[in-house]
Amino acid sequence: MLNINFTGKTNVGLKRSANEDTFVIKGDMGFCLVADGLGGAAAGELASRLFAEASLEVFQQAEDLIEKNVVERIQNSFRLANEKIREHVEMNPSHKGMGCTADLMALSDQGFVLGHLGDSRTYRFRDGRLKQLTHDHSLIQEQIDQGIIAEESARSHPLRNVILKAVGIKEDLALDVIRGRTYPNDQFLLCSDGLTDMVDDDALEDVLRAQMPAQNKIERLIDLALSGGGKDNITVVLVNIEES
After folding, report:
1. Which of these, 85, 62, 111, lies nearest to 173 by C-alpha position?
2. What is the pLDDT of residues 95-119, one digit of tens each?
């Protein structure tokens, strides 16, 4: 039997006047999410909140942890959020371009299911090793994949914030769904790009490896992002898998 502990925090950062990130932790429903708004302060904040509301609406109707049903709930959460955001833009044309990146992780009877769109990220720390589970839907990642630019130059590239996929931007969603097993001592890190633009993977791994409570790890990660410049909103959710 495994215990699942969720911890999360968001910080506006040092350069932004508003926080367009949203996170939700619902341990009783077995899911959590991080969403990062696009389209300017008011519209971006609303987009990430609409994604959170849509996910809560879908998961409140959940009755089981059967994997195929969990996958369907995640797909429905993204689909409903996409509809809500697009309907809002139709009624409010000044918010054209509004959307959000999002990672939504839910537990199933087989382990975990993760829905991903945009450049928010989810990592898994297992057996002392950090692994990025998601693949950024960004112009820079596409150029890295094609060998046009080196990965080392991506962090400072002027086009690093150009997103190719997001919730609310297009009618059709090309959602990534990732599934896997969970094991005792696994840690899953969901975060907005306000963390990963400021903190490299080696530093993330060092923090997750440290022997300290989850809340302290989150505080440490946010402090590192602020020390690195805090150019964007910073949101971190940590999921710890523990034996009963």
Report:
1. 85
2. 999 999 999 999 999 999 999 999 9
